[in-house]
Amino acid sequence: MTTLIAGYAYVRENFFATFRHYPEKENLYFLLPKSWKIKGGKVIYHPPSDPNVFTANAYFHHSRYPVIGGLLKGWLPAFPLVAWRLKRNQQLRLVYTPSEPILLTTLYQALWAKLFGLKHVFFSWENIPYRQKLKGLKGALQKVVLKLNIALSDGIICGNSKCLEIFSALTQKPLVQIPLSGLDMDYFSSQSGAKRFRDLDLENKLVFTFVGAIGIRKGINLMVEAFKAVLAEFPHSFLIIAGSGEGEREIETLIEKHNLGEKIIRHSWLNHKELKELLNASDVFLYPSLPYQGWEEQFGYAMAEASLMKLPVISTFSGSITDVVKDNQTGILVEPNDSQALQRAMFKLASDEGLRRKLGRAGRQFIAENFSQRVIAEKFHNFFRRFQ
Questions:
Q1: Residue 299 and residue 228: Cα distance in Å, rounded?
Q2: CATH topology of domain 196-370
Q3: pLDDT tens by residue, 12-59
Q4: Is the whole-model pTM more than 0.90?
Q5: N or C: which end of the chain has fewer CB within 10 A?
């Protein structure tokens, strides 16, 4: 069955690569932005090279626009033209829109799909019930858009288990739990050799690592406070914090305040190669995410990648993290905003190399069995076949 996937999500090669494992990839087409900006334009993605990829101008690259916010994020005006051509020339049957159902971007594609007589499915990461978060005038508009998208669409792909629960209460239409993309088992594989990251020699050092957005919602302040206590007991420890975001200045001030500049190393956003290098030189992955302004962690690809690199993960019982990290099996989960519990978990893994190795091995196996690119591509294929 010919399917069109249209949206900015798969402009990133590491996300797109999942569909290179799709069983009928010759029948899979993509409409992707000619370029996609993130980090305020500091990083620009370009679509992968593939004969089944169409490109077009995309607009609204973030969610902070005046009045409209993110309602039109990733809008591809050329969608109806591409969809019509594929229907005429390739017997297009299904459109998959990998964007949230509260966006006008999703509604735009759903409306055109129905006008062309096509089946339509959309994607959502949402793990907080809409009645709790859609407030005020903007929320009222989003509720209307949500209801229209559910009514117009033929199925829904949910990125996590809580999302599946939310939509199970809203519709009887076909639902499935599949994250946006799978993970590259071969790429994220730990390698022996010198324990280094860039110019840092980390041999005989205990390395805690965080990779992600730098902000309050990631619990980085708690991480720094906990690390200070751990360092007193394990002076050979280092903490590497990699990422960018609105909290960069605050976290650097906190590091200076505690005089930890020699033990906490800051790096900005890392590319794929640098990320692997850092994870390969690390011993424990930290990700103390916490609820923040109506948001909770929706999946956690950084944690999954760390698990593939056989790192034990310390995170929290927040959002959908339990989908990715299994408490006392692949890592240790603590309550969010509990600095003492975070500290205890760090002490526990710092003092037990055997436990670190045990959790790390189990983590790689769990991610491989549930979230590898091949596994996720097969799940997409099975769901899409329901609309033949």
A1: 28
A2: Rossmann fold (3.40.50)
A3: 999 999 999 999 999 999 999 999 998 777 789 999 999 999 999 999
A4: yes
A5: C
Integer Cα distance of 338 and 231 in angstroms = 18
> Strands of 313-316's sheet, edge to edge?
264-267, 237-242, 206-211, 284-287, 313-316, 331-334
Q: What is the per-residue pLDDT for 48? A: 94
The residues, ordered by sequence, that sit 6+ positions from 319 with a Cβ below 8 Å of its Cβ are 127, 160, 162, 289, 291, 296, 297, 298
Q: What pLDDT score was predicted for residue 246? A: 87
Sorted by where each begins, the domain ranges of the chain are 2-182+372-387, 196-370
Q: What is the DSSP string of 217-282?
A: GGTHHHHHHHHHHHHHH-TTEEEEEE--STTHHHHHHHHHHTT-TTTEEEE----HHHHHHHHHT-
Calculate ∠ Cα 156-158-162, nearest 5°: 130
CATH topology of domain 2-182+372-387: Rossmann fold (3.40.50)
Rounded Cα–Cα distance for residues 149 and 146 (Å): 5
- Give the burial class of 89: count Cβ atoms within 10 A of its Cβ; 0-12 exposed, 13-18 middle, 19 or more buried: exposed
Token pair for 336: 């969010």
φ, ψ of residue 341 in degrees (nearest 5): -65, -40
Mean of pLDDT values over 162-179: 98
